[in-house]
């Protein structure tokens, strides 16, 4: 009796398992399927505007007749912020959904995980948001392209501005993980190359999203810097900005700050947004080129909200995907790779090119100063920094990137 | 040769002496009872003998070897079996498995990873269960056993160590009066056959005077009387302790 | 000099908010023995509610503090709902089972918060009247920090009065010492538990509410704070409010001054301190002895050697799994590989937890060390998969040798938390040691050898290793070694009395369990092609716990069924936007309807029916 029960539930477990798995999707001949992965539940504040962006692009593409005469169909999945999940989902998208290529990801390590899988499974991967330099350099390979301006590029943009400042005593604050480390290393190198006279007097490494802002601000104060390079973002940035202001950290101190001009990070600060920080970002309300105005209007009409940086990245990603397939004339992976190398894509933020040498897009970022207008943070005196101008020489890239 | 020799054993808790200078010895095959009113220091004394407490001073010699500082585990290894006042058995195991567990330990097979524990020393375990009269309960879980039977399991577990000395802390506590006599008679019968020495504490005076060869009386941490049951029964000091100080 | 004074005061201010949340957790644990994962959710809700309420009121000192108080009270009420609807039904479930239910609550609250308040972070207003800084010898200290520095000890004092000067407090203290006794006194135990939960949740809500001028409200607040408060509670000693206060101050100050000397310390400081404290004081600073986790079930389930039918069932399951590749698509194999590897991981935890009574909150350490052991061998010395798969369990077993030596000196929740500390220390090492481990960017290119790179082959490799591993673990549970381990779980007193060296036995079992977890981790790395620090992170450890408890901790098949259920469920619903809500509700439902776990409750149901027949 005891044992019969065990048989019962053992088979029950097995059938439950089997029933949980959907059957392989039938080959859909009338659409081109794109696999899309991002950390929707892990970081909704950043990934939901991103999703809005690519959804808008897909609607526009399909309304205009699709790609190669077929509609684009995006199979989008949530990796919950876990790289192992992302890999599992990518496997599913490849095996069960017959996607033509993979796109998306936000976190650097997840981007790298999917990129490595793409290499193993010989599938094209258009990385949208991850910032890590490794994805196109040290760990780069022929199957992965990356859209967003990388850590190095954005640090280089800020190092240019920082070099113009009189400050000589610099302190850095960055979240304690690879992105923070890379951002500080690149900035230090590039600034010292331009200004050998500066010295770095302190560095703070709060744990990501767990900054003890008061103590950290205090520690920076003790070092008496003339300028601060900030890499913290999100809730860390808000805490740091507020504590620093209350404690007088930013008085007579220049601040150069990575990504802070992105609406994702600036908006939550409201009227508390710092003023006069030199930042990279995306002043979506201020960019009035015809292409961008059209995009902004369409976005506002569709979502009743202003586009965020994620929105433009999502939008540009899907437009780039469409452009790649169109240029390749098929969804054959090798054909798409060949077409993508050197391909120039038109976008609301201006044209960008996927460099053949490292598959990095030359999409740029906006560099300017923060200000508060109508109780909201915004960017002033900004210029568009074209990504092409902030990448290392081909020779240096060849040294870093393994040959295919 | 005496199995157990205790010399000037002392234990204090926060400056208060719970056991003061207790000395006694236990001969081979002897059944010795330790009695006294509540708080007299019986349990403290017992716990020092079985290794649970370390005495502040004094000596304990088991079969001629010093045991002060040994843990209960090491005391077991010296050939001591032990039963608890409130039974402690392995409730997820059957009665037989409880005894097998003790046998596995006795034969130093605790680190074997491959054989099936339930098939080790099965006959031996059943023989011991038969000896204490609960062979019919062998397959039942200790979690559902009647209290009197649990006490017998404890005895069986203690016997599995082929002990030279049995330490029994109130072996009949919590049992019905008739069961008590039965259990103690059974115990006495077994130990006399096997030549095992016994030290036990007990509240039930019938049990004590029926089965002990010798009785020690502890009061306020001191040994106040010692001798054959009859002599102790007549001792005026013992009478006074048991009847209360008011009668002095 | 004034710099150090201000830094010290800053540390005290951080300690205050930490203390508020921690003392609530400590009080709840002290009385109900529930390890409440949802405590961070109460904290987060407090912040969201306070910010929402304060925004609707005119700016002012009273409206600000009024909002804070109302938010705390509302969170207290939410706590009551959770207690009555969920926890009350499962107080008598096996040790720690309630933890799974509170994990479900965490998921539900996360998605509800997202649905109600949206994804974006929100920065609350500065507290009116406390919106600037005081000058201390030329150094500025925010006024609000001063308020917090006063608030912490004030709450401590009020709690002391509540516990020592009211009848309710006396009862609660008595209940902390001995739950049964309070029941015997004829006091309504239910009401005490509910009111304690209310108070604990209130304090968490208050802790969150007072944070709104200091940090933006975000959906990450719950998980960010929960590990930290657990550490504070454990360092202080479970159930001790004063201990929690001391621990919060120690953590606050060590952090404030630690970053001056060694800024990278922030990652691991908390867990280093906890490890050191627990090694020196096994029950925390002010913890009282003999606190066991959860209620001991009246009767611990026995285990039985498999009969012919069970063997047949296992054979059928194996045969089914062996035949799956013949008709299943690629992805089903991917999913089954994942289920199998995590089932082995869960079974290894069950080996020490179900059989040995050692609950580990850090079992992912071994899984991760195995994964990294294999990956490092591949990346740095180009070793083939076969060798890497030998190194994985070896590395994890060695880690078990080191961690286990310390852990077996502790018991109950302290054992669990010391394992967590070691896991977090290991995590921070791989997270930070960029040159070797690649830091959070992980190690890539960990693909199987040529012969196993085909999915078919890798599936069968996994099936054979997992089946072999599970069978070996099973066999060991029935061996004298496994029995001795279980003896120690049933009665440490009796095991000691029959010569079992329990610590030694437990230590060895941790090495064994670690090795099998490491083997699962090593294979896992090859199945994913990459390995990241999250392989040994807290969520991974929680996964294992949930699998074991969900399946049924007292059953041998529990971990396997738990793994299949959790992974299958996650995969089936992850296509939905609010999948966490669904998963949370399903977990809660399982907890309430099957308080002995899926397998355990099925067994009981069948046994019950048999008895009636």
UniProtKB/TrEMBL annotation, chain A:
GO terms for biological process: amino acid transport. Residues 1-28 form the signal peptide. Pfam families: Peripla_BP_6. Residues 31-369 form the Leucine-binding protein domain. It comes from the Bacteria. Keywords: Amino-acid transport, Signal, Transport. Coiled coil: none annotated. Belongs to the leucine-binding protein family. This is Leucine-, isoleucine-, valine-, threonine-, and alanine-binding protein. It comes from Oceanibacterium hippocampi.
Automatic annotation (TrEMBL), chain B:
It comes from the Bacteria. Residues 4-245 form the ABC transporter domain. Its EC number is 3.6.3.-. One of its GO terms (cellular component) is plasma membrane. PROSITE patterns: ABC_TRANSPORTER_1, ABC_TRANSPORTER_2. Gene3D superfamilies: P-loop containing nucleotide triphosphate hydrolases. GO terms for molecular function: ATP binding; ATP hydrolysis activity; L-isoleucine transmembrane transporter activity; L-phenylalanine transmembrane transporter activity; L-valine transmembrane transporter activity. InterPro entries: AAA+_ATPase, ABC_AA/LPS_Transport, ABC_transporter-like_ATP-bd, ABC_transporter-like_CS, BCA_ABC_TP_C, P-loop_NTPase. One of its GO terms (biological process) is D-alanine transmembrane transport. Keywords: ATP-binding, Hydrolase, Nucleotide-binding, Transport. Pfam families: ABC_tran, BCA_ABC_TP_C. This is Lipopolysaccharide export system ATP-binding protein LptB.
Automatic annotation (TrEMBL), chain C:
It is found in: Cell membrane. This is High-affinity branched-chain amino acid transport system permease protein LivH. GO terms for cellular component: plasma membrane. The chain crosses the membrane at residues 6-30, 42-62, 68-87, 99-120, 146-163, 229-251, 257-280, 309-327, 387-406, 413-434, 456-473, 507-526, 546-569, 581-606. It comes from Oceanibacterium hippocampi. Signal peptide: none annotated. Keywords: Amino-acid transport, Cell membrane, Membrane, Transmembrane, Transmembrane helix, Transport. Belongs to the binding-protein-dependent transport system permease family. LivHM subfamily. Its main location: membrane. GO terms for molecular function: branched-chain amino acid transmembrane transporter activity. It comes from the Bacteria. It is a multi-pass membrane protein.
